[in-house]
Amino acid sequence: FEKLRDPSHNRCLSLEEWSEAFAAVGCPLQHQETAQKGMEFDWWASRMQTTPATTTRLRAMLVQAPEPVLAFLTPQYSGDRITFHLTEAILIGRK
Question: What are the residue ranges in the chain where pLDDT is below 70?
Answer without folding.
Answer: 4
